Amino acid sequence: MNIKKVSLLSGGFKGAEIVFLKADFKNNRPVIHTITEERKNPIHMDFERIFKDLRIHLLEIFKIANNRLSESEIKTLILDTDVHSIEWDGDGFIIKGDIEAFAEKRFKLPAGKVQESDEYEGYNEVRGLIEALKIEAVSYMDGLKVVSDREMMLRWLEARKDSNMTKEAFELLSEEEQKTYMNKTLNSKFGAEIEIDVDSEDETEEEEMESVVVIDDESDVVEIPVKKGKEPKSPGTVKESF
To answer: Contact at 8 Å (CB) between 44 and 140?
Structure first.
């Protein structure tokens, strides 16, 4: 799959949007379709970790993080920064995100295209992260990696989304108390109901799969496996280029 862009929805808690190219032939001429697929299920940990690793690069590109700052100051800046999307081609990449400027107020960091000729020191490292992201995005779209309820709860707390609980306080709760709190939080935020043990992830591998057919305007059919019970996604957005 020739992926060209990945965007997170609500930091990945509500899924991701993935843009990829699909080659085809029309009247014996090669046609490239640009297809946008959206998934509503939360991204898994390895997927999220790549976006976290991109934060320092976004800060460096804007020269917000520099050698005049202490290590602790840079760590604070990273925690205050979110990367929402990254797109790329053979010529470079574009990282977009935002940073907390004041309490309850964030500013966008819509970076321009960074090319190898710009001599950004972290260019090759970002390229490596892109290659890793391609692998995780395919695993995510194919349903090979899913997030457990407990993992999702811990990530929600790490992102400081809950003013009533911290990750450290949550981990001190008993198993039953954790399950009760997860039920309350995940059900209200995402409509999730916790019915299994908080540490169990085995059932996710046994869920049945059904196919959602995505048809572009050239009548191409793409079979996308999704978990049974989820609503089918809308058809991909398709563009043509010759």
So the answer is: yes
**Secondary structure class of 110 (helix, strand, coil):** strand
109 and 166 part of one domain: no
Q: Are residues 155 and 120 in the same domain?
A: no
Beta strand residue intervals within the chain, DSSP E: 2-8, 16-26, 29-39, 81-89, 92-102, 105-110, 114-115, 209-215, 221-227, 237-241
Domains held by the chain: number: 2
User: Is the CB of residue 69 less than 8 Å from the CB of residue 55?
Assistant: no
Residues 78, 175, single domain; the answer is no
pTM of the predicted structure, to 2 decimals: 0.68
Q: Are strands 29-39 and 221-227 parallel, antiparallel or unpaired?
A: unpaired
pLDDT tens digit sequence for 86-109: 999 999 999 999 999 998 899 999
**By residue range, what is the domain housing residue 179?**
149-200
